[in-house]
Amino acid sequence: MITIDGTQYSKWSRPIFEQMRAGGVTAVHVTLVYHASARETLTIIGAWHRLFEAHGDLIMPVFTAADIRHAHEVGKTGIIFGFQNPSPIEDELALVEVFYQLGVRFMQLTYNNQSLLATGCYESADSGITRYGRQVIAEMNRVGMVIDMSHSAEKSTLEAIEISERPIVISHANPLFWHDSLRGKSDVVIKTLAEAGGLLGFSLYPFHLRQHSATTLADFCGMVAKTADMIGVQNIGIGSDLCQDQPLSILEWMRNGRWSKTMDYGEGSAANATWPEQPDWFQSNADFPNLIVGLREIGFDEDEVAQIMGGNWLRFCEEAWV
Amino acid sequence: MITIDGTQYSKWSRPIFEQMRAGGVTAVHVTLVYHASARETLTIIGAWHRLFEAHGDLIMPVFTAADIRHAHEVGKTGIIFGFQNPSPIEDELALVEVFYQLGVRFMQLTYNNQSLLATGCYESADSGITRYGRQVIAEMNRVGMVIDMSHSAEKSTLEAIEISERPIVISHANPLFWHDSLRGKSDVVIKTLAEAGGLLGFSLYPFHLRQHSATTLADFCGMVAKTADMIGVQNIGIGSDLCQDQPLSILEWMRNGRWSKTMDYGEGSAANATWPEQPDWFQSNADFPNLIVGLREIGFDEDEVAQIMGGNWLRFCEEAWV
C-alpha cells in the first residue's frame, strides 16, 4: 500500500527514516520552515541535501508524482518539501518559481498570523487574500506549487479556494464538528474545499484530537468516516503533523518566531507549555499501519483504505505538480 | 551547425535573443553575477525566469546537454547559467548543490581578486587554492558544476586543474603567446588544461585581442589555429565575452563591485575608461557566422570548424553535467 503523510516536522535523523521504512511510509511532505527568510531557507535546503547524501538508502527527494511511485518501487521514503509560512518568498513574486525549482511543492499562505498574503487562524480579524496574495496564488497555479491553508482563517481560506484556478489543500487539520479549536475547519470550508477538488489531511497532533493524547484510534477513525460521509472518500488523506524528537525550543520557535516579545503558547497554555504526548497508537512513523487497521475496523473497504492512506495524495500530486 | 558560446554578459533583451537566432547560436553560457550574495542571486535567477516566460519562443533554460540538443532541434537558443565569481555561495559549501539545482553549471573560483577559494589574476601574490577552495572543488566535482578559471591567477589555475578530479575550463581567455595581458593564459596553463581534458574558450572582448578593435578576423583565427597546433582541436571553443548593450555603470560595477573606494579601471585606464569597441566582424550575436568563415579560411576542415564552434563545448557539457 502507498502511504503518504501530508505534513511532518520531525527532528530528522536516521532512526526516524528507519521508522518511516518500518511504517511503510512511501512519501512525506516535510516542513522546511516556519519563520525563515529566503537566504535562511537555502541553508535548510542545503541541510536536506546532506541528509539525502548520508541516508540515500532510506530516503530520496521528490519532485514529481513519478518520484513517489519510484520511491515505492525501490523501498525508500520520498521527501516532499513544503513551507508552513510564505516567509521564504518575502515580498518577491519570482521566488515562487525559484523555490519550486528547488523542490518546494506546498506552501501555506499563512502560519497562524497575518502574512503578506492572507490572514492566519489566530488573528481576530480576517481580511482575506491580499493584493500580493492574489499574485502569489496565480504564480503558484502557474508553476504547480500547491496552496495549503491549514493554518489560515476561514474567510482567507474560502477566498483562496475561490481565487485559485487549481485545487488546494488543507494538509493537516481536523473538522470542527469533531473537535473545537482555532485550527479546526468548519463544514463550509471542508465542503467548499472538496467541491473544488481539494484535499483534507487529518491531523494526529494531540491538540487537534478530541481527547488529546487520550483519543482512541476508533474515535479518530470515526471522524474520518463521518467526513467521508460528508464529502466523499476521494478528498481525504492523512497529514499527521508529527513532530518527533523536537526539543521545547523548537515549539517555542514555531509559536513565537521573531515576532513576539512575550511567550505565545499557541494551542497550549502557560500551564501546558510543552509538546503534547502522542496517543499510544500513533507515537512515531512506525505506527502508520495502526491507521490502516483502524480504518478497516471502522468499515472502509480495502480500496477506500488505500485511497485515504496515500492514493488520494498521489492522485492529487499527479495533477498538481505540472 | 551547433554553435555554443562559452561566456556572455549582455544586457538581455528580445533584440539580442533575435540576434542569437539570426547568428545560429544554439546555446550560451550567460553570466548571472559578478558581485552578488546568495540572496541577490535568487533575484537574478527570478529575472531570468521572467525572460524565459516572455521570450519562450526564442530562448529556453539548459540543465543538461540534452537540453542543448533540444534547443538546436526546435530552433531556440539554450541559456546556461554561470557565475563569474563564487560570491553567491558565500562561505556555505552546501550552496554549491543548491545553485546547481537552480541551473548553475559553471562557476569561476575567482573574479580578478582573491576570493575565499583561490587567487584572481589581478593580485600580486598567488597563494593557490584555499582550504575552503578544496572543499568547493570536491563538491563541484560531485554535483557536476564546472570549474572555470578564466579570471584566476596562474598558480591557482594549475592547482585547480590538479585538484579537480574532473576536467575544468577557461571559458573566455586568449593565449599570452598572442597577446600579453593579466587575463591571458600561459602555454603551461593551456597545455596542462588540455592534458587534463579541459577546454579553452577564445575571447572576443577587445582588451583580449592583439590589436583590440582593429584586430582582423584572420589574425584571430590564426591564433586559434596556432593553439590547435599546440593542444589539438578537441580542447578549444569560443567564449566571446560579449557584453552587448551594457551601460558604463555595469562596467564600473564589474571592475569595482562594492570592494573599491577609488575607481579601478580593470583592463582599461583613466584615459580609456569605457567599454571597448567590438571589431567590425564581431559586433553582436548575429556575427557568429563570420567566425565560421574565418575558421574555414585559416584552413580548418568542416569537422574541425564544427568542433570549435560548438561540438567541443557540447561534448564537454555532456561529460561534465552528471
Molecular structure report:
2 copies of one chain form a homodimer. Chain A has 322 residues and is of the alpha/beta class. The first copy, chain A, has a single domain (3-320), classed as TIM Barrel (Alpha-Beta Barrel). Chain A contains 11 helices and 9 strands. Chain A has helices at residues 14-22, 38-54, 65-74, 95-101, 131-143, 154-163, 187-195, 217-231, 248-256, 288-297, 302-320; strands at 3-8, 25-33, 59-61, 77-83, 104-108, 146-148, 169-170, 199-202, 236-238. In chain A, the strands form 2 sheets. In chain A, strands 1, 2, 3, 4, 5 and 6 form a 6-stranded parallel β-sheet that branches. In chain A, helix 8 (217-231) packs across helix 10 and helix 10 packs across helix 11 (302-320). The first copy, chain A, is globular. Chain A starts with a strand and ends with a helix. The model of chain A has no long low-confidence stretch (mean pLDDT 97). The interface between A and B is medium-sized, with 19 and 19 residues.
Main attributes?
homodimer, 322 residues, alpha/beta, 3-stranded parallel sheet, 40% helix
Give the SSE layout.
2 copies of one chain form a homodimer.
Chain A: E1 3-8, H1 14-22, E2 25-33, H2 38-54, E3 59-61, H3 65-74, E4 77-83, H4 95-101, E5 104-108, H5 131-143, E6 146-148, H6 154-163, E7 169-170, H7 187-195, E8 199-202, H8 217-231, E9 236-238, H9 248-256, H10 288-297, H11 302-320
Parallel strand pairs in A: 1-2, 2-4, 3-4, 4-5, 5-6, 7-8, 8-9
Task: Give a quick summary of the entry.
With 322 residues, chain A is of the alpha/beta class.
